[in-house]
Specification:
The protein has 12 helices and 10 strands. With about 450 residues, the chain is of the alpha+beta class. The protein folds into 4 domains: about 1-40 and about 65-155, Serine Threonine Protein Phosphatase 5, Tetratricopeptide repeat (Alpha Horseshoe), CATH 1.25.40; about 165-260, Serine Threonine Protein Phosphatase 5, Tetratricopeptide repeat (Alpha Horseshoe), CATH 1.25.40; about 260-340, Serine Threonine Protein Phosphatase 5, Tetratricopeptide repeat (Alpha Horseshoe), CATH 1.25.40; about 365-455, Carboxypeptidase-like, regulatory domain (Immunoglobulin-like), CATH 2.60.40. It has a 4-stranded mixed β-sheet, with no helix packed on it. Helix 4 runs antiparallel to helix 5, helix 7 (about 225-240) runs antiparallel to helix 8 (about 245-260) and helix 8 runs antiparallel to helix 9 (about 265-280).
Length: about 450
């Protein structure tokens, strides 16, 4: 018979369809020869015409046993038919799956013959899902995967030739971009070449990159983009660390940038950077005018504090760069004021090194040890830090301060320290930051080195 739900052909009898699991119904013959569905049969009752009402109790018991025996035989038969149906259903399904596996196997063979390896692999994998022990499919799947592996491996000769041609094209584009001074394109193309093959014509690529970095830095300098320019100079120096031209360009840029960083805030530090820059390259950007103006502004700053002699010096240096009648008159005024300014009190030179003062033991006390004549226009304060055994104390910080300006020097192994290039002939205060000490005041004087010694009190 066929399953009324899925149409599956069923051999024998079964309670359920082996394919879809639907319940099966069968017709049985009635007493008059007509067919009757099992679910339509009327149950036997005591009042049925098949059972005489005058039947004795003994006959009723015998009939009951007979009915039970018949029912048992029927149930066993039905179960046997169901088991047979399941067996034949599973057997039919196995045959269907085997047939499907063979169809997928044949497709896989066809795909392999056509060179469609990936499709063949899929077909053989499907065969093994249906029949995991399909020996021929296992062998062909292994063969197909090996063919696929070989096909995906790069062909050295063909790939090398292709890469060589591609790199040659990029290098030609790189040279054209360099000739056109298209630095952005140069950097992009060079990066692409190095990423593809770091060794391909590397010396030529690095030379082009070096020139592009240096030229880009120079262009950024003209735009006052100093920090960006320094980054490009640094990249150029990574390629050619000993290139004197780039080193000089970087040094000038650093001096200019540092000088401008202190512009209007600290004229002394501004000049410490602009003056050497002006001496090395007087035509660098606007350094000539900047140095002149810094001298003038610094002179004005000193004049406001009535430090007339120091102000006169700054005006004189500015006049050497850019002469002007107005600045000349201003300088003459400061000269007049400077001549009327009382000279600083003579330094007390009666103190002797290691002189005892009223200070606790272990405290370092300063004194003026010597005044040394030097060329005019220069002024230094130098000295030493000595312990109670008159040995130098190294590695200690010495601070010098005047007004709101201060800086620090560190003693060497012999206890020596130095403050050179001081620009104001004023009184400076020296203090030892790492040792117990008394502040010591010393006058800065043009044309002299003031030698100061700190001694540990006993």
């Amino acid at each position: 018979m066929e399953c009324p739900s899925c149409g599956f052909k069923i051999r024998g009898k079964a309670l359920f369809c082996p394919n879809c699991g639907s319940r099966l119904e069968y017709a049985k013959p009635s007493l008059d020869g007509a067919t009757l569905r099992l679910d339509e049969a009327e149950p036997l009752t005591p009042t049925s015409p098949l059972t005489p009402v005058h039947q004795t109790q003994k006959q009723g018991c015998g009939m009951s046993l007979t009915v039970l025996a018949i029912a048992t035989v029927v149930i066993v038969a039905i179960l046997g038919l169901g088991a047979a149906g399941i067996y034949y259903g599973l057997k039919d399904r196995s045959q269907v799956e085997h047939q499907a596996a063979e169809e997928h196997y044949n497709k896989g063979i066809a795909y392999m013959e056509q060179g469609e390896i990936e499709l063949a692999i899929r077909e053989f994998e499907t065969v093994l899902v249906l029949e995991p022990k399909h020996d021929r499919a296992i062998a062909k799947l292994s063969e197909a995967r090996e063919v696929q592996k070989v096909a995906t491996e790069p062909t050295v000769t063909a790939t090398s030739v292709s890469d060589e041609q591609a790199l040659a094209k990029v290098f030609d584009d790189l040279r054209i971009a360099n000739e056109n001074r298209d630095w952005a394109a140069v950097f992009t193309l060079a990066d692409e070449m190095i990423a593809r093959d770091p060794t391909y014509r590397r010396a030529e690529v690095d030379q082009i990159l070096f020139g592009a970095y240096y030229a880009s830095g120079q262009e950024l300098l003209q735009q006052d983009r100093m920090k960006e320019a320094l980054r490009f100079f640094d990249r150029a120096l990574q390629l050619q660390p000993d290139n004197a031209e780039v080193q000089q360009a970087r040094k000038l840029a650093v001096l200019y940038m540092n000088g401008m960083a202190y512009w209007g805030a600290d004229w002394a530090t501004t000049l410490e950077n602009l003056v050497p820059l002006y001496q090395m390259a007087p035509n660098y950007k606007d350094v000539r005018q900047r140095t002149h103006d810094a001298y003038v502004y610094y002179g004005d700053f000193l004049a406001e504090r009535e430090d007339w002699c120091a102000a006169e010096k700054q005006y004189g240096l500015a006049l050497e760069i850019v002469p002007s009648a107005a600045l000349f008159d201003k300088r003459q005024d400061t000269i007049a004021y400077c001549s009327r300014q009382p000279s600083p009190p003579a330094a007390d030179t009666t103190l002797t090194p290691g002189a005892q003062v009223n200070a606790p033991a272990g405290t370092f006390v300063g004194d003026l040890a010597d005044l040394i004549e030097i060329e005019q226009g220069r002024m230094y304060i130098r000295g030493r830090v000595l312990d109670k055994d008159n040995k130098g104390v190294g590695g200690t910080r010495v601070q010098i301060q005047a007004w709101d300006w201060k800086t620090v020097a560190v003693t060497d192994g012999a206890g020596n320290f130095a403050f050179d290039g001081l620009a104001n002939p004023v009184t400076y205060t020296l203090t030892l930051l790492d040792l117990p000490s008394l502040p010591f005041d010393v006058a800065g004087q043009w044309g002299r080195v003031s030698m100061v010694e700190f001694h540990e009190a006993r």
